[in-house]
Amino acid sequence: MKGKKQELGKEYYLIVYDKEGNKREVSFSKKGKAKDYYAPGTYIKVDTSKTISLKESIVNKEEVPSKALENIEKLGTKR
User: Fold this and answer.
1) Calpha distance 9→62 (Å, rounded)
2) Among 36, 40, 42, 77, which residue has the fewest nearby CB atoms (within 10 Å)?
3) Residue 58 structural domain
4) What is the pLDDT of residues 13-69, one digit of tens each?
5) Cα 26-28-31 angle, rounded to 5 deg
6) Which residues are CB-contacts of 24 (< 8 A; sequence separation ≥ 6)?
7) What band does 1 get if pLDDT is binned at 50, 70 and 90?
8) What is the pTM of this model?
9) How many Å apart are CA 70 and CA 23, to the nearest integer?
């Protein structure tokens, strides 16, 4: 008996910060192959509702709000 084919992708479990520097844990998946995944050091903007991640997009470091960037550099984003 064959198993069900799994869709390729990667799960991300991160700590993110809003423009005031407040911390929140999020998780989301990125579908595709290894070349489609986010490289270490990539700045990702995560739009969320109160309970889920809605959209992720790559941004330049200069676009990250200063309080969020300060916490990213000081505290990191790994859960």
Assistant:
1) 28
2) 40
3) 9-75
4) 999 999 999 999 999 999 999 999 999 999 999 999 989 999 999 999 999 999 999
5) 165
6) 15, 16, 17, 18, 48
7) low
8) 0.83
9) 12
Whole-number Å distance between alpha carbons of 37 and 29: 9
Is 2 a member of any domain? Answer: no
**Is the torsion defined by CA of 32, 36, 39, 45 positive or negative?**
negative
Beta bridge partners of 17: 23
Indicate whether 53 belongs to any domain: yes
Joined together, the tokens standing for residue 71 give: 């916490």
pLDDT of residue 68: 98
- The DSSP bridge pattern shows strands 9-17 and 23-31 to be antiparallel
User: Structural domain tally of the chain?
Assistant: 1
* Spatial distance between the Cα atoms of 22 and 50, rounded to a whole number of angstroms: 14
Residue 38: name the closest of 62, 16, 18 by CA: 16
Six token digits for residue 72: 């990213």
